[in-house]
Design a protein that fits this description.
By secondary structure, the chain is of the alpha/beta class. It contains 10 helices and 8 strands. The protein is globular. InterPro entries: FAD-linked_oxidoreductase-like (IPR029041), Mehydrof_redctse-like (IPR003171), MTHF_reductase_bac (IPR004620).
């Protein structure tokens, strides 16, 4: 176990890609020795649960603890029971309980309206299973204020979440401000800082808009300067993420969760830069 913690996120291959491409990703991540790898989850279809379980099992076969994402909105209790059975068979070390994004034209099941509802149900059905949760340093887009969002986060922890992973952010001061407020509100679970390397200007702007995460001036200048040159932007993005992580570790964060976007070469470069700061 690293101190602070160091973990990764991967996602199942796109439906148009062979499932076996996940082996390329995991092979490329060998040597990073993360404390766990989380595996994302789709919109709520049965096939998504199966694929997440398969990838999580594959991660476990590499000797790395796996955490399976599970989104709540479009699931009923039978769906969740089925997912938990599959995840247990896949030998996951925990489940990341999420509400999930709204899907245009799809009607939520109305059973688990919030991630805290899903966390409470998992805690009831699987008392021994570790439950992870998400948090939002710049507040959830649908929360009126950061304070309101942290009140909801406390409910999530009270429902059974014992480990938190943050949404991406590009300004460490936003994360540190959130961390102080969360601790003051009694949120005592470990909180990992979610870092997403900048590799594509359009993706950064889209993600920033979707998550309502601000782009600080120095990142904006970087995007203006190298946004049209993918190779140079990738190099700048590796440097930016590495600097973020070094600063966060120096300030004593509980851990760092690196969103790999299934680009192991970028993750390896970042890990090479920051590895000395993780014991």
């Amino acid at each position: 176990m690293h101190s602070p913690m160091f973990s990764l996120e991967v996602f199942p291959p796109k439906r148009t890609s062979p499932v076996g491409t996940i082996y390329d990703t995991l092979d490329g991540l060998q040597g990073l020795d993360p404390d766990f790898i989380s595996v994302t989850y789709g919109t709520g279809k049965s096939s998504d649960r199966t694929l997440t379980a398969r990838i999580a099992h594959t991660v476990s076969e590499y000797g790395i603890p796996s955490v399976a994402h599970l989104t709540a909105q479009y699931l009923n209790k039978d769906d969740v029971d089925q997912a938990l059975d599959m995840f247990e068979q896949a030998k996951v070390s925990g489940v990341l309980a999420l509400r999930g994004d709204r899907i245009d034209g799809a009607e939520p099941a109305g059973v688990f309206e919030h991630a805290s509802d899903l966390a409470a149900y998992i805690r009831q059905q699987r008392p021994g299973m570790k439950i992870y949760g998400a948090c939002y340093p710049e507040k959830h887009p649908q929360a009126a204020t950061l304070e309101e969002d942290i009140d909801n986060l406390k409910k999530k922890v009270d429902a059974g979440v014992t480990h938190l992973i943050s949404q991406l952010f590009y300004d460490n001061e936003d994360f540190l401000r959130f961390l102080d407020k969360a601790r003051a509100a009694g949120v005592d679970a470990p909180i990992e800082a979610g870092i997403m390397p900048v590799m594509n200007a359009k993706s950064v702007l889209n993600m920033s808009s979707k998550c309502q995460s601000k782009i600080p001036e120095k990142l904006s200048i970087m995007l203006d300067k190298w946004g049209s040159d993918k190779a140079l932007l990738k190099e700048a993005g590796i440097a930016y993420a590495s600097e973020q992580i070094c600063d966060l570790v120096a300030r004593g964060v509980d851990g760092v969760h690196l969103y790999t976007m299934n680009h192991p070469c970028v993750s390896r470069r970042i890990w090479s830069n920051v590895k000395p700061f993780f014991v």
